[in-house]
Amino acid sequence: DSGVTQTPKHLITATGQRVTLRCSPRSGDLSVYWYQQSLDQGLQFLIQYYNGEERAKGNILERFSAQQFPDLHSELNLSSLELGDSALYFCASSLTGVADTQYFGPGTRLTVL
Amino acid sequence: GEDVEQSLFLSVREGDSSVINCTYTDSSSTYLYWYKQEPGAGLQLLTYIFSNMDMKQDQRLTVLLNKKDKHLSLRIADTQTGDSAIYFCAETSNQAGTALIFGKGTTLSVSS
Questions:
Q1: Cα dihedral B36/A93/A87/B5 (nearest 10)
Q2: Res B2 pLDDT > 90
Q3: pLDDT, position A48
Q4: Cβ neighbours for B97, distance < 8 A, ≥ 6 positions apart
Q5: Which residues of B touch A39 (CB under 8 A)?
Q6: Rounded to an integer, what distance in angstroms lies between the CA atom of residue B100 and that of residue B26?
């Protein structure tokens, strides 16, 4: 158990809908990362937050957004969902967000029908 | 661009050693990582190596780093059926903060 929690574990929804994925980092970690794992693209970095502020952006679509709250939990919002958004979404956390080890949560499996 | 390459499959017998190879592109990566993913599970950090090291050993795991060739390997001694999983090599991006750039993963199959 990495100490990073993600909810829900599974999510099934329809095209065009909007969903919110939630992540709680390990106790004491200030930085949160979101990654997407799909069969065709592999594991891709989406976005990073540090202590409530966005720090880095990767291949995140404009339909997707995220935030980190004062209690350091983070939410990833996915809107106007398409079939191709079906994937496993991972959250990771690290202490400082600068060249330190990232610990991953169990992931949320999103299925868009 | 940034790219991490790994072979896709490796099949070994129980008790043998497994060697999983990886090549990376960013010579400025501070750390290089190995993660393990079991079916239906998240990513488990196995080990990592600091870029100024050549080798790191941790119980049955040995990581070798060749900076000149940008080659990283993970050796698992006395491989067990419980080691069957997907193994990901990762480097730190130089374009997106400290995000990790992952390879496609090597599926290790261990037969008894």
A1: -50
A2: no
A3: 94
A4: A48, A55, A56, A97
A5: none
A6: 11
Is A19:B69 a contact under the CB 8 Å cutoff? no
Q: Which of B43, B47, B102 to mutate to test the interface with A (most CBs of A within 10 A)?
A: B43
Query: Measured between CA atoms, how close is B93 to chain A, in angstroms?
Result: 10
Q: Report yes or no: B70 and B24 within 8 Å, Cβ to Cβ.
A: yes
Is residue A34 helix, strand or coil? strand
- Asked if B89 and B63 touch (Cβ cutoff 8 Å), the reply is no
Mean pLDDT over all residues of chain B? 90
Q: How far apart are CA B80 and CA B17, in angstroms?
A: 9
Supply the pLDDT for residue A92: 96
Which token pair is A7? 């909810």
Q: What token pair was written down for A27?
A: 């106790």
Helix (H, G, I), strand (E, B) or coil at B81: helix
Q: Write down the residue that tokens 């990762």 correspond to.
A: B90
